[in-house]
């Protein structure tokens, strides 16, 4: 636009010959919190491998199921349910929880596939995944006889 038409438009608007419409906007809604979930009623889930032969640790032997139940409150909103296993991963396997024994981890499986620690996955409450665990050792590690433990948190939450 050149300067003259701009000035003319400004002059017309300033004397009230330009009209416009306006309306107020109102926004409202309701904040909802997802229903609470519990796993095994908040009790500790224990998996005991018993006596494990050092030379038999191959990621197959000693595989055990992790029995658990998830209960969540009901709600009408379509929340997405997530499940994760949170813990310290070994340096050699992102799906294995570090034990108190260097070079030894506990690999977690969901539906027969390695379950990457600290990574939530979508699940369905009516058919949660099957979880299994198995001892694994770091390639080249030399293990000595010892008791071992590992700790992780199984977490179910809505997003």
Automatic annotation (TrEMBL):
Residues 1-23 form the signal peptide. The keyword Signal applies. One of its GO terms (biological process) is cell adhesion involved in single-species biofilm formation. It holds the Pfam family Fimbrial. SUPFAM superfamilies: Bacterial adhesins. Residues 26-158 form the Fimbrial-type adhesion domain. Keywords: Signal. Transmembrane segments: none annotated. One of its GO terms (cellular component) is pilus. InterPro entries: Adhesion_dom_fimbrial, Adhesion_dom_fimbrial_sf, Adhesion_dom_sf, Bact_Fimbrial_Adh_Pro. The keyword Hydrolase does not apply. This is Pilus assembly protein. It comes from Pseudomonas trivialis. The lineage of its organism: Bacteria, Pseudomonadati, Pseudomonadota, Gammaproteobacteria, Pseudomonadales.
